[in-house]
Design a protein that fits this description.
binds magnesium ion, six-stranded parallel β-sheet, seven-stranded parallel β-sheet, 21 helices, binds adenosine-5'-diphosphate, about 20% strand
C-alpha cells in the first residue's frame, strides 16, 4: 500500500473518521505514521493480584468471579463493582456512572485489566475504571501502548488500532537518510524507528526511535531551508555602487557608531554591491542601536537613486521612527513620509502620490505600506523592524512592492546562533553584540504583591524628583481572569492615590490617534506615569523614563519582559525594573531570578527556551517554520548539533546524490507551512 494513499483505505476508517483525522491534519497513511504519540502507557507488566502495590498502575490477567453489580448512591450516582480473581488473589474493580460497562463481561470470562491499584488497610485490593480486553485476543495489553494527542471524538483506541493497521499495511518503508550518515551519527533505521516510536518493544527502543525522528526532522528542515536560501541567493538584486557615501551620513550622527554597528553596516554594503538580492537579519539586543544601522542603509539606498521603505509593527513605533529618521535625513535633503492606517484620506492620497512619483524617497509606516493601493516608483530596499511581530507572509508582501528589493529584517528577540540558524535558516545573519558606551544596566528586582504599596511609593518619589515611569499590565480588561491587574482600573486607582501627578493610560484597544496623544504626552513629560499594556513593548523611546513596574510579571515570556525592560535606562540615570508577581511556583521564581541576574538578551532567550520546557517550541510558527512534530530545540540541542554537522557533510558531498532526501525536502517546501 502506498504511503500517499488516503487513510480511508485502512480498515475501520470510513468517511466520518477520516474527517476527524483530517482535523488533525492527517489525510494520508504517511501523515498518520508521522502522527507521533505524546506519551506511552506501560502495559507490559502483567502482575499477580497479590503482588500489586498500592498506587501502582499495572495489568492483571483475571477471571470474572462475581458479575458486575450496580448500586445507586446519593444524587443518583451509579457505582458498578465486579470481582475478579487469578491464582494469587481477588480484586475488586470499580466504575463510576458507566451504565453500559456491565454488558462487557461474561461469567467466568477471562480478561486483562489495566488500571491504578489501591489497597485498603483491611487488605482489599481495588482497581478503578480499568481498561480491559478479552484474554487471548488482546491487542493493546501486555505491552507498551502509545497515547496520542487527541480530540474528544476520536478515541485513543481507534487511533491505536488504526495506527497498528497502518504500520502493517504500509509495508517496508523506503529509508531516505543515507546509510553512512546513519552509521556515523548512530541513527536508527526508518522501519525500526517507525514501529518503535508507536509500539516500542521497550523504552530504550522508544528513545532510539525518537532520536531518529528528531534528527530526521531537523535534518530535513535545515536542508529545505538551505535550498530556499539557495534560491534566494540566486535572485538578482539592485547594485548599489556608491557605498562610501555612507560616511557622509554617519558623520552627521550625534554619536560614534559602535564596532558592531560598523561591522553590520559593512555586511549590508557588501550584500548590496553583490548583484544578488540581500536577505539579511540583524539581531541585536534592545538598545543596541539597530535603527542607526537601518538608517545608514536607507541613506545609501537613496544616494544610489532608489526608494527605501521601513515597516514597523505599531503606529506608535512607526511614528517614532518617522520623527527620528526624518530629522536625520532632513539635513541631507532627503524627503521622508509616514504612511499609517489611521491617516486622513486626503493626507493619505497625497502621500501615496508622492510614493508613486518617487518624490517620497523614504517611506516609514505600519502594515499600511503593504496594502494594495500603495505603489512605489522604484523601491530598492525594505526594512522590517521588530521582525518578531511580522509574519513571513507580510514580509513577502512587502518584498512584492518592488522588484526584488534588498531586505533587512531587524529582530529584537536575540537568540543563540545555533537556533538562529534553524529559525532563520533562509537568511544571512548579522549580530550586534555590543551596546553603545555608557549604558548602565537596568537594576531589576522581583517582589511579591504585599510590596506593591512600597513599589508605588518608590515610583512616586522618583516622579517627584523629576523622572517618569511605566507600569505594565498584562490585559486591558478583566476578561476571563479576575486576578489580573486591569490597566484601566489601576490607572484610576493610581490617579486617585497620587492626585498631584499626571497618570496616563494606553492600551491596544484605543484608537491610534488616542494612543498617539498619550504617547506624545508622555514623551513631552506632561504625563508622569504611564499605565500601559504591552503596546509599549516595541520601540518607544523616552529617555527620561527610568522606572518600570510590571504587574503579574509571571504572565510574560522572559524575552518579552526583557523587551519591556528595554524601555527604561535610555537616559543617563540609573534605571529600575520591578517585577511584581503573585505566583510562587518554582518556575516563576527561576524565571524572575534570570531577569534579575542578567541584562543580556541572548542569555535570557536561551533561559526562556529552557524554562518553557518541552511542548512549547519557541514560536517556530511565528518564524514561518512548520511546527516541530517531535524535536524540542532546547532539549534536543545535542541532536541539533549533530544534524547541523550532517547537513554540512551532505551539502559538501552534493545533495543531488541523495534524491530521496531531496524529495522529502521538496515536500516540506511545497507544503503550505513553509514559505517559498
Ligand atoms: P534598538 O536596537 O533597540 O532599536 P535604538 O536604535 O532605538 O535601539 O537605539 C537606542 C538608543 O541608542 C537611541 O536613542 C539611539 O540614538 C542611541 N544610539 C544608537 N547607537 C548609538 C551609539 N553608537 N552611541 C550612542 N548612542 C547610540
Ligand atoms: Mg528598535
Amino acid at each position: 500500500m502506498g504511503l500517499e494513499k488516503s487513510i480511508q483505505f485502512i480498515k475501520g476508517v470510513g468517511e466520518k473518521r477520516a474527517a476527524l483525522f483530517e482535523k488533525k491534519g492527517i489525510k494520508t497513511v504517511e501523515d498518520l505514521l508521522y502522527f507521533f504519540p505524546r506519551s506511552h502507557e506501560d502495559r507490559s507488566k502483567i502482575k499477580p493480584i497479590d503482588r500489586c502495590e498500592d498506587g501502582e498502575t499495572v495489568c492483571i490477567a483475571a477471571t470474572v468471579y462475581q458479575l458486575p453489580l450496580d448500586r445507586y448512591v446519593r444524587r443518583g450516582m451509579l457505582i458498578t463493582t465486579m470481582s475478579v480473581m487469578d491464582e494469587s488473589g481477588i480484586m475488586q474493580l470499580v466504575w463510576y456512572n458507566n451504565k453500559y460497562i456491565k454488558n462487557n463481561f461474561t461469567d467466568n470470562g477471562r480478561y486483562i485489566f489495566f488500571g491504578k491499584v489501591s489497597r485498603s488497610k483491611q487488605g482489599r485490593i481495588q482497581m478503578v475504571a480499568p481498561v480491559f480486553e478479552k484474554y487471548g485476543s488482546e491487542r493493546f495489553m501486555g505491552r507498551i501502548i502509545p497515547i496520542y494527542p487527541l480530540t474528544a471524538k476520536l478515541p485513543q483506541k481507534v487511533v491505536q488500532s488504526t495506527m497498528e493497521l497502518a504500520l502493517g499495511e504500509a509495508g517496508t518503508l523506503e529509508e531516505y537518510i543515507p546509510e553512512h550518515i546513519r552509521e556515523e551519527y548512530k541513527i536508527a533505521e526508518l522501519n525500526f524507528a517507525m514501529r518503535n516510536i508507536h509500539f516500542p518493544r521497550d523504552f530504550e527502543s522508544y528513545n532510539i526511535a525518537r532520536e531518529r525522528f528528531v534528527f530526521e526532522e531537523l535534518l530535513v528542515l535545515q536542508l529545505a531551508l538551505n535550498e530556499r536560501r539557495g534560491k534566494n541567493a540566486d535572485t538578482p538584486g539592485y547594485v548599489f555602487n556608491d557605498a562610501k557615501c555612507i560616511r557622509g551620513f554617519t558623520d552627521s550622527l550625534p554619536f560614534d557608531l559602535t564596532g558592531a554597528q560598523k561591522r553590520t553596516i559593512n555586511e549590508i554594503c557588501r550584500d548590496c554591491k553583490s548583484g544578488k538580492q540581500m536577505n539579511r537579519l540583524v539581531q541585536g539586543d534592545v538598545g543596541s542601536g539597530k535603527t542607526a544601522v537601518a538608517a545608514a542603509a536607507i541613506y545609501m539606498t537613496v544616494r544610489n537613486g532608489y526608494q527605501a521603505a521601513m515597516m514597523a509593527p505599531t503606529e506608535i513605533l512607526a511614528g517614532q521612527h518617522m520623527e527620528s529618521l526624518s530629522q536625520m535625513f532632513e539635513k541631507h535633503g532627503i524627503h521622508t513620509v509616514l504612511l499609517t492606517g489611521s491617516m486622513r484620506a486626503k493626507e493619505k492620497r497625497r502621500v501615496l502620490e508622492e510614493i508613486a512619483l518617487g518624490t517620497a524617497q523614504v517611506v516609514i509606516g505600519t502594515h499600511a505600506i503593504i496594502q494594495g493601493t500603495v505603489e512605489f516608483n522604484n523601491l530598492g530596499f525594505v526594512v522590517a523592524d521588530e521582525q518578531h511581530r511580522f509574519g513571513v507572509e507580510q514580509r513577502a508582501k512587502l518584498m512584492a512592492k518592488g522588484n526584488n528589493p534588498h531586505m533587512l529584517i531587524m529582530s529584537a528577540t536575540p537568540i543563540p546562533r545555533t537556533l538562529a540558524l534553524i529559525l532563520y535558516g533562509d537568511l544571512d545573519i548579522s549580530i550586534i553584540d555590543e551596546l553603545p558606551p555608557g549604558r548602565k544596566p537596568v537594576r531589576t528586582y522581583a517582589v511579591t504583591e504585599d510590596m506593591r504599596k512600597r513599589v508605588y511609593n518608590f515610583i512616586y518619589k522618583n516622579i517627584k524628583a523629576g523622572m517618569q515611569a511605566y507600569v505594565v499590565c498584562p490585559l486591558v480588561a478583566e476578561t476571563e481572569n479576575s486576578d489580573l491587574k486591569n490597566a484601566e482600573e489601576l490607572a484610576e486607582r493610581l490617579a486617585a492615590s497620587y492626585p498631584d501627578i499626571n497618570v496616563g493610560l494606553m492600551h491596544g484597544k484605543m484608537k491610534a490617534a488616542a494612543k498617539d496623544e498619550v504617547m506624545s504626552g508622555f514623551a513631552s513629560g506632561d504625563i508622569n506615569l504611564l499605565v500601559a499594556t504591552t503596546v509599549i513593548e516595541v520601540g518607544v523611546n523616552v529617555p527620561n523614563a527610568n522606572i518600570m513596574a510590571i504587574e503579574n510579571a509571571e504572565r510574560f515570556g522572559l524575552s518579552q519582559l526583557h523587551q519591556l525592560r528595554g524601555r527604561v535606562g535610555r537616559g543617563g540615570d540609573q534605571a529600575h525594573c520591578i517585577l511584581i508577581t503573585e505566583s510562587d511556583s518554582e518556575v516563576t521564581k527561576k524565571r524572575m531570578e534570570t531577569m534579575c541576574a542578567s541584562n543580556d538578551g541572548f542569555y535570557i532567550s536561551e533561559q526562556d527556551l529552557k524554562l518553557r520546557g518541552p511542548g512549547d517550541f519557541f514560536g517556530t510558527r511565528q518564524h514561518g517554520l512548520p511546527e516541530m512534530k517531535i524535536a524540542n530545540l532546547f532539549e534536543d540541542r545535542d541532536i541539533l548539533r549533530l544534524s547541523q554537522k550532517a547537513v554540512k557533510s551532505l551539502l559538501d558531498d552534493g545533495i543531488e546524490n541523495y534524491p530521496l532526501l531531496v524529495k522529502r525536502c521538496r515536500a516540506l517546501l511545497s507544503s503550505e507551512v513553509i514559505m517559498n
